[in-house]
Amino acid sequence: MIVTVAGIVARLSGSPIPGALDVTELSIAIFAFLGAAYAQRLAAHIRMDIVIDRFTGRPRYLVEALATFAGFLLVLVLIRYSWDFFLNAYTIGDTTPDADIPTWPAKLCVPIAFTIWAMRLALEVVGFLRLVIWPDAEPVAVPKVMTPAEEAAHEVESLREHQEDAR
């Protein structure tokens, strides 16, 4: 964001920063893909709650495990092809068109991020299968999905704590 703002200010002043757009484009890939595993942990990805909410107990945990395993398989495929994409960029010495910045470091972040995401998904599959076997156990390594009302109550409580800490 700093590079983008600096690039805009420099462009408005008549002296653009060479390669600012290239750096911004490369950083978007890095931040977008590295955030995927974290979003998975927070259950922030799009979910099929309409279907999953119809189940409770063991059946729900089994459906969650199967859906998470399907996501895991998809991410494994993405790791494979994003790795090939990185290798191609590295082999041919791919660079950005404007500032001649090598693109392979940003492209390497993609299979690394997918690998982290795959590990997160594998951990969740194990966590959900554990709950299939022991449905009364404390959930471990699975995201806590909150209803909109629970999420709003949690945000209100967080704001109250923040205001108390500020005093």
TrEMBL record:
Part of the tripartite ATP-independent periplasmic (TRAP) transport system. The complex comprises the extracytoplasmic solute receptor protein and the two transmembrane proteins. The chain crosses the membrane at residues 20-40, 61-83, 103-123. It is a multi-pass membrane protein. Belongs to the TRAP transporter small permease family. One of its GO terms (molecular function) is transmembrane transporter activity. It is found in: Cell inner membrane. Residues 1-129 form the Tripartite ATP-independent periplasmic transporters DctQ component domain. One of its GO terms (cellular component) is plasma membrane. This is TRAP transporter small permease protein. The keyword Cell inner membrane applies. Its main location: membrane. The lineage of its organism: Bacteria, Pseudomonadati, Pseudomonadota, Alphaproteobacteria, Hyphomicrobiales. Keywords: Cell inner membrane, Cell membrane, Membrane, Transmembrane, Transmembrane helix, Transport. PANTHER family: 2,3-DIKETO-L-GULONATE TRAP TRANSPORTER SMALL PERMEASE PROTEIN YIAM, SLL1102 PROTEIN.
